[in-house]
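B., you asked whether I could sanity-check this one before it goes into the benchmark set. Here's the sequence:
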Amino acid sequence: MNGNVLLFVTAMLCIKQLSAMKPILIVHGGAGDIAQSRVQGKLDGVRLAVREGYRVLQHNGSALDAVEAAVVSMEKDENFNAGYGSVLNLAGEVEMEASIMSGENLDVGAVTLIKDFLHPISIAHKVLTDSPHSLIGGQGAKQFALDKGFPMVPQESLISENAQAALKEFLEKGGEFGKTEVGIAEGGVGTVGAVAIDINGHIAVATSTGGMTGKVVGRIGDTPQIGSGTYADDNIGGVSTTGHGESILKVCLAHSIIKLMESGVDAETATKEAVTAMTTRLKNTAGAITLSKDGDVGVYFSSKRMSWAYIKDEKLFYGIEQGEVLEENYVK
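And here's what the prediction gave me:
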C-alpha cells in the first residue's frame, strides 16, 4: 500500500469515526393509574432496563439487540405488565403479546396470545429474523417458539400475586376497562417498551405487554399491531406506546407520531400532540417514548403517571410524574 492510499484510507476511517452516531436508548414501563406504592419499583426497573440495553450499544451492538435486552429486563420484573407479572384474562390466565421493528429496512416481528414463555419479545425478534411472516399468534406462535428452541415455563410461574389480586378486584367491582394499569391500591404494573439508535444510525423499537386485567380470552391489543404500539423508520425515528390499547390502535398512535415528525415536527411536540389528540377524541389515556433520527427525545403521557428512562451523552434521565425529569451520571 503506497503512501497516498494509506493516507486516503486513514482519512476515510477518521471521517467514519467522527460521523458515527452517538447511541441512545429510551425505555418506558407503562402509563396509567399507578399507585404511589409502586413508584419506586417502577423507577428502579426502568433504570435497570435502560442500563441493560445501553450496554449492548456500548459494545457496538445493534439497536435491535439493545431494545430486546432492555425489554427482557422488564419482562423479568413483576413491577411491569410483561412476561412475569403480566395481568390476567377472565379465565385467570396470562396471554402476552410483543412486537419489534427495524427502522433500517422496516422489517417487523410480532407475537400475540403467548402463554407459556417468559420472553415474548425474544420470540418476536426471532419472527423478524427467521419467519416470512410478521405476526404470529396463539398455537402457531407457540409452535414457532418451540421450533426455535425457546423453553416453555409453567403457566403459574408467570402469574404474580399482584396480578391475581388485580383480577379479583376487577371481578368484584364488575369490571372497568378504562384503567391502563392494575387498579388495586397496592398494584400498578404496565406495558413496557424501548427505542434505540445505534452507532450506525439504525433505529429499532420493541414493545411487550400482558394486556388488560379481565380481558376476554383471545383479546388482542395495540402492542403487536405495527403502527399502533410500535414503529421505527431510520429516515424519521422510532416510537413505542403504552396506555388504553383499544384507543391506541384506533388512532395508530405510534405511526401518527412518526407522520408528525416526518412533516417537520420535533419529537417532543409530535409525541405530545398525538397523545393529546387521542385522549381528547376518545377520552382514554396513553403515553409514548420517541427518538428522532437525529437523536432528539420525546416523552409524553396523558395518564396520571408513566415510568421512563433514557441514556444520552453519558447521562441517565428518568421520571414517572407529570413534568418530572430526574438525572444522574451514567456509570459504565
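One thing to flag: The two ends are 39 Å apart (CA to CA). Otherwise nothing jumped out at me.
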